[in-house]
Structures are given as C-alpha cells and as structure tokens.
Amino acid sequence: MTLKEQILNDIKEAMKQKDDFKRDSLRTLNAAFKQIEVDERIELDNER
To answer: What distance in Å separates the CA atoms of residue 36 and residue 48, rounded to the nearest whole number?
Structure first.
C-alpha cells in the first residue's frame, strides 16, 4: 500500500469516526501531494 493510499484510507476512517481534526489534517496533506503532482507534472510514489 502506497503512502497516498494509506492517507485516503485514513481519511475515510476519520470520517467514520467523526474525527474532524484528523480528517481535515489528512485532507490538507493529500491536497499538498496533489499540488506537487500538478505543478511538477509527476506522480508521487513512496520513493519521491
């Protein structure tokens, strides 16, 4: 499981547990990863 997949799974779990702080923190992290991918036109994986 890649780091991105783990973050998405953790977001889902936080939503189920109604943990708003954890959910929002993980969403911010996920958005930062996506922004890097768009800006640099690459796909991040566990090595980058």
So the answer is: 11
